[in-house]
Design brief:
Blueprint lengths: L1 E6 L1 H4 L3 H19 L7 E4 L4 E4 L5 H12 L4 E11 L7 H12 L4 E8 L6 H15 L12 E8 L2 E13 L6 E7 L5 H11 L2 E9 L3 H18 L6 E6 L1 H10 L5 H20 L3 E3 L12 H8 L5 E3 L7 H11 L2 H5 L18 H8 L5 H8 L2 E4 L3 H6 L6 E2 L7 E4 L3 H6 L8 E3 L2 H7 L8 E5 L4 H13 L3 E5 L2
Parallel strand pairs: 5-6, 8-9, 8-11, 9-10, 11-12, 14-18, 15-16, 15-17, 17-18
Antiparallel strand pairs: 1-3, 1-4, 2-3, 4-7, 6-7, 10-13
Helix pairs in contact: 6-7, 6-11, 8-9, 9-10
Length: 482
């Protein structure tokens, strides 16, 4: 099986050295994500495309490979192709019919041929010849060059013929790792995951920074959405999830700072911490999900006062977005369910928050704050490679991982519905389906006298939740990892 990968259009207009670097990064990223599905996958670099070859024939595996490529930044299209040696023009139709004959029945059509190399014919010659041959050998309708019902696509590359069976839209953007890294302040609502996704799509290796305001359930929810973003769009790049304990900061704000200034000062404290952590990691930019006028702390004046606390650049990719548009993107990329099911947490709630902060007043209030608390928060921050988040939780409580279902147990399939639908779990043991982002709120549905085995495919999310359920609910929970 072969796939042709078409680069994002902005890659093709880069200078030759930059284009080679971007293409090389994309090839490396594809090898990394596809080898989880096919250890023997081969990715060939070419100037105008990548060619992905796999010996896999299992339809479920191929669909998962296609999905992985569709979610890898840097790609405009993935073409599912059949390769043949180049033959005389009047014989090309024999390679087209097995794929297109049924599709063409009674339909208007057009033929599109892209040709590279030196030949004694033009692309339009191939299109005319093949169009005439299809009319003669099938019950196809008429040729319609504009908006045809079926487009027959093929590419000729030197002495190879590629018949395009299907075309799939990619994410676009730049390959992750081709642009500098950023540190994204993520809280798990609708906004910050979408902001993180947009930076990843633009080619930036995105690390996640979470400020824990006092709840482990909320931290678990943010870990979930960060893991989801990394698994689906992160191209297996090595990034960190950093959790900063902010309970003491909140307590200090509530007791020392004037009510109306707390929201702005909290954001300034977060930027101070983010700035110091970014500096330690050699990262030049922070990312937030803030949007002008969405909440009181996000007026233009307030954002200006907040930003003056650091010199490091703060990216706000959603700054002029409507909330409805943000929710639509969250739904499209799969993070909307996380926001809808995120556990509530207590933070700083001002009764009468300022919308026109004055720097002198803010600084006067900050003078009452014990800055040693920020030092302690940074010292106690937990840095974890994102692919090892589950292992971090396992250090707290032992979780049994089994490759065979236990008798009388029930498997809980906690995968995202899209993944579960593509590759249904086939076992003889009873299975119930609860997506991991609903497991916290629906754990009461699980009977205390039964044994449950969580399953998530790769085993990361199942370990994370098994640890949490064992500690918080006392349920008999294990992990099923075949």
């Amino acid at each position: 099986m072969k796939f042709i990968i078409k680069y994002f259009s902005e890659i093709t207009i880069k200078s030759k050295p930059v284009r080679r670097r971007f293409v090389g990064q994309l090839a490396d990223n594809l090898r990394s994500v596809l080898r989880d599905l096919d250890p023997d996958v081969v990715v060939h670099k070419q100037w105008d495309k990548l060619l992905v070859e796999t010996a896999q024939s299992d339809e479920a595996v191929l669909q998962n490979m296609l999905e992985a490529m569709r979610n890898t930044p840097g790609i405009t299209y993935i073409l599912d192709v059949r390769e043949h040696p180049l033959c005389p023009m009047d014989q090309i139709v024999t390679h087209i019919l097995p794929i297109y004959q049924k599709r063409l029945s009674g339909k208007t059509f057009a033929v599109r041929c892209k040709r590279t190399g030196t030949h004694d014919f033009r692309s339009i010659d191939v299109e005319r010849q093949l169009g005439a041959d299809l009319i003669e050998s099938t019950d196809v309708g008429r040729v319609q060059l504009k908006n045809p019902e079926v487009t027959v696509e093929l590419e000729i590359n030197d002495q190879k013929l590629f018949v395009i069976e299907s075309r799939h839209r990619g994410l676009g953007g730049f390959p992750i790792g081709s642009v500098d890294a950023v540190l994204s302040l993520i809280s798990g609502g609708f906004d910050s995951p979408v902001a993180s996704y947009l930076m990843m799509k633009r080619g930036m290796r995105t690390h996640f920074l979470f400020f824990n305001l006092g709840g482990r359930d909320h931290e678990l929810g943010v870990k979930e959405v960060s893991l989801y973003l990394w698994h689906k769009y992160g191209s297996n790049q090595r990034v960190l999830f950093i959790s900063v304990p902010f309970e003491e900061v909140i307590a200090e704000l509530l007791t020392r700072v004037q009510d109306s200034q707390m929201g702005v000062i909290l954001k300034r404290m977060m930027l101070r911490v983010g700035d110091r952590i970014a500096d330690s990691l050699g990262i030049d930019a922070l990312v937030t999900g803030e949007c002008v006028a969405q909440v009181s702390s996000q007026t233009v004046r307030n954002l200006s006062v907040i930003d003056q606390v650091i010199e490091r650049v703060v990216f706000r990719p959603l700054i002029a977005s409507d909330k409805g548009d943000i929710i639509n993107v969250a739904t499209k990329i799969g993070t909307g369910e996380f926001a809808a099911n995120m556990p509530e947490y207590c933070g700083v709630i001002s009764v009468n928050p300022t919308t026109k902060a004055r720097l002198d007043r803010v600084e006067a209030q900050e003078n009452k704050f014990d800055m040693a608390i920020l030092d302690r928060a940074i010292e106690n921050a937990v840095h974890t490679r994102i692919d090892r988040l589950a292992e971090e939780n396992l250090e707290r409580i032992e979780v049994e991982v089994l490759s065979i279902p236990l008798a009388q147990s029930t498997i809980v399939d906690i995968r995202h519905p899209d993944e579960e639908e593509r590759t249904p779990l086939k076992v003889n043991t009873p299975v119930i389906k609860i997506p991991f982002y609903e497991l916290h709120s629906r754990s009461a549905e699980l009977a205390p006298d039964k044994t449950y085995m969580l399953y998530c495919g790769k085993g990361v999310m199942s370990r994370l939740h098994a640890s949490h359920l064992l500690e918080s609910s006392g349920l008999d929970v294990k992990v099923y990892a075949p």
